[in-house]
Specification:
Structural class: alpha+beta
Number of strands: 9
Shape: globular
CATH topology of the largest domain: Hypothetical protein af1432
Helix content: 40-55%
CATH class of the largest domain: Mainly Alpha
């Protein structure tokens, strides 16, 4: 782990450059990769020498953001704002696709989803503790809860996925496993895969981090970034997962692919096999997207989770090297640009929460508005279907996401 870094400053003039243009004297303000995919202590630091550049290259990083206000400049490099606009324009082009059809409304499904979510967390907690004690994984204990999660997602994916974004730091490993399972099931459904494949993928998602039970608890729960040796030890969990699942009766190759390949990257920069492109199974490529998306939207001691919309933009940007671009498009369709449970600001100044994805466009969900940001007061909750025209409950649009903390709002009461 890089230790000779300084406290990060604010990057006010970020520009994006390929690592081939990186020089000592520049200031990196974004490494252009998920926090668990690089060995640096921080995401922002001055580049002091060629050794630091080699370490960035060796981590599989192809592009970085630099801040000319804190170091050397590259005159013709695009600004972060220009890059963001280009990415979001491409996302908007894809967003005209409809969301997968739901069978019931979010409010109707939410109660059942809470029960299933709680049961899944309990099951994976018990299984992982058993593995830590040297016991084998019992697939028959996993199958029923994966089936229940799949049924919930088929009825309404947004309900369960919105619950999966709520985590506490002490139980992250268990809750992350449940979230990856739910995301992968929803992803497979949006991709049109058959029921058996979806079920086996879900099992793989729930067990994808089982090898972490062979990693010391003190390392898993360390309230800081890892040293180089610790980072290597953490990366070994993928191989440990493969060993555990190879000894598991009734496990499928699809489930093993999820566990063994979810840290592989499309450009070959991942681990543990360094597979590239189509050499990574389709399920491994899908699992990688789900794993990173859930990780970067989750709060950790040293990492503040991104809003879903921001996380999708990052995944879209990183798909230039790290992810299969076509699968990223399908993943966006599975989750929505603004997933259910996202707090959003409308052009009218009203604030609301996304209730349902639209069957017309991912940019026009059903929103329950409840706060007037101009008057700074609550309003009578009202459902606004952004896919409908004025006079029919619509005529507004999302201009950005908001956080409940910023407004002091308990969002769950409006779901």
């Amino acid at each position: 782990m890089e230790t000779a870094v300084e406290e990060a400053g604010e990057c006010s003039m970020a520009k994006k450059i390929p690592v081939t243009q990186l020089k000592p004297g520049m200031y990196v303000c974004d490494l252009g990769a998920a926090w668990m995919d690089h060995p640096f202590l921080r995401n922002q630091f001055p580049v002091k020498d060629e050794a630091t550049i080699r370490k960035i290259v060796d981590a599989g990083i192809r592009e970085v953001y630099i801040d000319p206000a804190q170091g050397l400049d590259v005159a013709d490099a695009p600004t972060e704002h220009e890059v963001r606009e280009e990415i979001e324009a491409e996302m908007l082009r894809i967003a005209v696709e409809p969301a997968p059809v739901r069978r019931v409304g979010t409010r109707e499904e939410l109660g059942r989803a809470k029960v299933v979510h709680g049961e899944a967390n309990k099951i994976i907690h018990n299984i992982m503790n058993d593995v830590r004690l040297g016991k084998q994984v019992q697939v028959e204990a996993v199958e029923p809860v994966v089936e229940q999660m799949t049924e919930s997602i088929l009825r309404n994916a947004g309900a369960l996925l919105s619950l999966c974004r709520i985590k506490n730091k002490d139980d992250y490993t268990f809750q992350h496993s449940v979230s990856v399972c739910a995301l992968l099931v929803a992803f497979c459904r949006a991709a049109g895969l058959d029921a058996q494949t979806i079920h086996l993928a879900g099992i793989g998602g729930l067990l994808h981090d089982i090898g972490k039970m062979h990693v010391p608890t003190s390392l898993l729960n360390k309230p800081a970034r890892y040293t180089d040796d610790e980072f290597a030890r953490m990366k070994s969990h993928v191989v440990e997962s493969r060993k555990i699942l190879d000894e598991t009766d009734g496990i499928s190759e699809i489930s093993v692919q999820v566990a063994y390949e979810h840290h592989e990257r499309y450009d070959g920069s991942g681990y543990s096999q360094g597979l590239k492109g189509e050499a990574i199974s389709r399920m491994g490529r899908m699992a990688a997207i789900c794993d990173v998306y859930d990780a970067i939207t989750s709060d950790r001691v040293y990492h503040k989770g991104l809003a879903p919309h921001e996380a999708l933009r990052k995944i879209f940007e990183w798909s230039k090297f790290h992810f299969d671009p076509l699968l990223v498009h399908q993943f966006m369709r599975a989750t929505g640009i603004y997933p259910v449970g996202t707090m959003v600001m409308l052009e009218s100044g009203r604030i609301g929460v996304v209730l349902e994805q639209s069957e017309v466009s991912l940019l026009q969900p059903l929103v329950r508005v409840f706060y007037d940001s101009k008057q700074m007061q609550y309003m009578t909750p009202k459902e606004v279907d952004l896919a409908k025209p004025e006079g029919h409950g619509g005529a507004d649009r999302i201009v950005g996401h908001e956080t409940p903390e910023k407004w002091g709002i308990k969002l769950e009461q409006f779901m």
